[in-house]
Amino acid sequence: MGIEILEAAADKVVARMPVEGNTQPYGILHGGASVVLAETLGSIGSALHAHTLGKIAVGLDINATHHRAAREGWVTGTAVPVTLGGSVACYEVTIVDDSGRRTCTSRITCILRPAAPGA
């Protein structure tokens, strides 16, 4: 996927991903690739939050709305928390192209579970 993490904290996670190599047959960024980027960002943020509670984060739900196509360059995703609780973490992820135009909006929810012994 070529995802590069640029910033990672529980309150904000930023990464970018190349369009090239992640396209569908029409030459545009595959919607599933956008979802992979969104889930990666939300999962990292959730895991960082869960760690402060001695827990782990596991994906529970994700959705995405694709607003416009990206044909070249990079897309950049930014995840910010909607809620950071003791049992659930939810992030909104916005993905933009090199011109700053929104290509996708996603929401990911992770459930926070007790860490297994030794994990």
Tally the structural domains. 1
Major sheet attributes = 6 strands, antiparallel
Cross-sheet strand order for the largest sheet: 1-2-4-5-6-3
Mean model confidence by pLDDT: 97
* Separation of the first and last Cα atoms: 27 Å
Helix run count: 1
The CATH topology label is Thiol Ester Dehydrase, Chain A
What's the total count of β strands?
Answer: 6
What is the ordering of alpha helices and beta strands? EEHEEEE
| Helix/sheet category | alpha+beta
CATH class: Alpha Beta
> Beta-strand percentage?
over 45%
CATH level-four homologous superfamily name? Hotdog Thioesterase
What is the alpha-carbon Rg in Å? 15 Å
User: How does CATH name the architecture?
Assistant: Roll
Gross geometry:
elongated
Unreliable spans are none
Helix content: 10-25%
GO molecular function: 1,4-dihydroxy-2-naphthoyl-CoA thioesterase activity
Keywords: Hydrolase
Protein name: Aromatic compound degradation protein PaaI
Domain Thioesterase: 26-104
